[in-house]
């Protein structure tokens, strides 16, 4: 190991300052510290689809729902609130108005707020596909797991083909969550009248009572973004 001659502290400080200055760094600047990423947010974002990992719940009604749910949480380990019973949210809008974006943004907002959160997300079409009876699959157990999940996203309710079986499955799932007062985030392209026709009066009645409704309007954002990319490519 090579020994270096001792230097006065002042000389060493001046030498270090000159090295930092040569590298374009201000030795007199206050150090900045990046906050450590939230572990819950990291784990939660790992389960969020890549397209929605930066989603933000910027609609006032969705943000208000997030605050209400977060404030109602019961304290858990290290004082972090856990998800409690509460109101559900029905996000209604035509295709491409950002319903799914707002739903995943709500999840991210709850995670950022430090809420201990166990959640699941599934489209209505995938819900019926997963629960359809088939050999070696316990659909009943999976239905109960969805029914008991502290927070559930059901995306595109009313988009799947309807039948007596799908209406029964929807009724059983919604009714259990309605009775337990578990928060449920539901998105749909259908107005309440069309939704009632598609999923039945019993489910629609429960949704009317258990949810706050948010209506998103405007153009199809996906088509608008595609048009913008096309214009940019032509300009280049």
State the major sheet: 5 strands, parallel
* Percent strand: 5-15%
Strand order of the largest sheet: 4-5-6-3-7
> Structural class of the secondary structure composition?
alpha/beta
Strand runs, count = 7
Order of helices and strands: HHHEEEHEHHEHEHHEH
Helix content: 40-55%
CATH level-two architecture: 3-Layer(aba) Sandwich
Please count the helical segments.
10
Number of domains: 1
Radius of gyration: 25 Å
Question: Could you tell me how far the N terminus lies from the C terminus, measured between alpha carbons in angstroms?
Answer: 59 Å
According to CATH, what is the class? Alpha Beta
CATH topology: Rossmann fold
Low-pLDDT residue intervals, each spanning 5 or more residues? 1-9
| CATH homolog superfamily | P-loop containing nucleotide triphosphate hydrolases
Structural shape: globular
- Average pLDDT rating: 83
């Amino acid at each position: 190991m090579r020994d270096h001659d001792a230097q006065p502290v002042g000389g060493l400080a001046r030498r270090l300052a000159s090295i930092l200055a040569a590298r374009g760094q201000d030795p007199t600047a206050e150090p900045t510290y990046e906050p450590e990423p939230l572990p819950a947010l990291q784990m939660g974002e790992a389960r969020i689809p890549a397209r929605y990992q930066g989603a933000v719940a910027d609609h006032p009604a969705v943000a208000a729902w997030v605050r209400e749910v977060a404030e109602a949480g019961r304290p858990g380990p290290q004082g972090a609130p856990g998800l409690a019973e509460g109101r559900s949210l029905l996000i209604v809008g035509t295709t491409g108005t950002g319903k799914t974006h707002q739903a995943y943004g709500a999840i991210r907002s709850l995670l950022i707020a430090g809420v201990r959160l166990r959640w699941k997300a599934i489209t209505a079409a995938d819900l019926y596909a997963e629960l359809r009876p088939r050999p070696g699959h316990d659909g009943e157990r999976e239905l109960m797991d969805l029914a008991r999940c502290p927070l559930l996203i059901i995306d595109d309710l009313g988009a799947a083909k309807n039948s007596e079986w799908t209406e029964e499955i929807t009724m059983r799932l919604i009714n259990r969550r309605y009775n337990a007062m578990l928060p449920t985030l539901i998105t749909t392209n259908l107005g309440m009248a069309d939704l009632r026709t598609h999923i039945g009066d019993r489910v629609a009645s429960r949704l009317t009572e258990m949810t706050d409704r948010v209506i998103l309007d405007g153009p199809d954002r996906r088509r608008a973004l595609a048009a913008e990319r096309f214009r940019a490519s032509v300009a280049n």
